[in-house]
Design goal:
The chain has 393 residues and is of the alpha/beta class. The chain contains 14 helices and twelve strands. The protein is globular.
Length: 393
């Protein structure tokens, strides 16, 4: 294996050298606890607040509406649980989509076991939420609508502004899991009528273990983690200063490069999609053909298993996935692919490739070549494919 071609950037990204450089002093030089009152700790406190301001401006929020968390999953839990209990006097009904990340779906399942009701709105064949079904699901007791900004598996970008308007018209809190969208496509929480937003540092060349929760000031929610006055007494725990600094720097870099980076990734994305679909029969693109994340490719192949494809690609130095990294150990087919109408056997044969600006056209062509060869190899061993070929004679 002469070269690593990393195509799993939806799972995580590497830390950008400039991000690492910004973080390093806060491990061993400026190591003061920002909650302390002496001047040495003041440098850490300023670094935290500078990052908070950078992130707030990036999404059109006020600085005191940004709360630092341990990651996107924590932020999703906070948004749903805190709002559900805070709004319980109004009602106990939550609306979400059938293709959410498990950080949302499993939290909703938890809430269902504790007296709340959840409606899971369907999506069309491209993974776009059905707005008519969403509107029809609203009840007088509905307190939260939670719909992801862009899907982590198939890359479809949801009609967030329309959903935000529906929520606002009905006096319902609107939360969006923007973990995959943040730093890749423009987000303005005011323009889109977003009340709460989750994002994570490690999807944009920042460090792991740091996330944010945007929480509109008008929402009066209690503490999510008790034990201290950090984050305006809503999220206790000593600040992860290096992580926060890294997230702030990663956001700064994302803002500077987003337009140019997206254009380049879309060019590579479409080259990869077209090459695979044109050269490999019985393959299909999953997700919206155009309203999708710049770097996302998700394709299903009939008559093969996605896990076998991953192993063969790995042998050639290509890192990919068959879906969400959070469910990589599961033998069940993707709930997202089932929701868009794929039968189990096709859902099992899916491949997710997520690009970065470091990938070249030569890399893309190599991957197309390897995917084609591996599909042919796996199909040659498939009794189902053999039966299919016989049926075509």
């Amino acid at each position: 294996m002469s070269k690593l071609i990393y195509l799993d950037n939806a799972a995580t990204t590497k830390v950008h050298p400039k991000v690492l450089e910004a973080m390093l002093p806060y491990f061993s030089e400026e190591y003061g606890n920002p909650s302390s009152i002496y001047s040495f700790a003041g440098k850490s406190k300023k670094a935290v607040e500078d990052a908070r301001e950078t992130i707030a401006k990036f999404i059109g929020a006020k600085t005191n509406e940004i709360y630092f968390t341990g990651g996107g999953s924590e932020s999703d839990n906070w948004a749903l649980k805190a709002t559900a209990y805070a709004k319980k006097d109004k009602g106990n009904h939550i609306i979400t989509s059938a293709i959410e990340h498990h950080a949302v779906l499993h939290t909703c399942e938890y809430l269902e076991k504790n007296g709340f009701e959840v409606t899971y709105v369907g999506v069309d064949e491209n993974g776009v939420i059905k707005l008519d079904e969403l509107k029809a699901a609203i009840r007088p007791t509905t307190t939260i609508i939670s719909v992801m900004f862009a899907n982590n598996e198939i890359g479809t970008i949801e009609p967030i502004k329309e959903i935000g308007e529906i929520a606002k018209e009905n006096d319902i809190v609107f939360h969006t899991d923007a973990v995959q969208a943040y730093g890749h496509i423009p987000i303005d929480v005011e323009e889109l009528h977003i009340d709460m937003l989750s994002a994570s540092g490690h999807k944009i060349y920042g460090p792991k273990g740091i996330g944010i929760m945007y929480l509109r000031n008008s929402l009066k929610l209690g503490a999510f983690i008790h034990g201290g006055a950090q984050e305006r007494s809503r999220r206790a725990g000593t600040h992860n200063v290096p992580g926060i600094v890294g997230f702030g720097k990663a956001t700064e870099l994302a803002k500077e490069t987003m337009e140019e980076r997206a254009a380049y990734e879309i060019k590579l994305r479409d080259r990869l999609i077209d090459g695979i679909l044109e050269q490999i029969p019985h393959s299909r693109l999953n997700g919206h053909p155009t309203d999708r994340l710049p770097n996302n490719v998700n394709i299903s192949f009939e008559f093969i298993e996605g896990e076998s494809m991953l192993i063969l690609l790995d042998q050639k130095g290509v890192c990919a996935s068959s879906g969400s990294a959070c469910t990589s150990g599961s033998l069940d087919p993707s709930h997202v692919l089932l929701a868009i109408g794929l039968p189990h056997e096709k859902a099992h044969g899916s491949l997710r490739l997520t690009l970065s600006e470091e990938i070249t056209e030569e890399d893309v062509d190599f991957v197309i070549e390897q995917v084609k060869a591996n599909v042919e190899r796996l199909r040659s061993m498939s009794p189902l494919y053999e039966d299919f070929l016989k049926s075509q004679k």
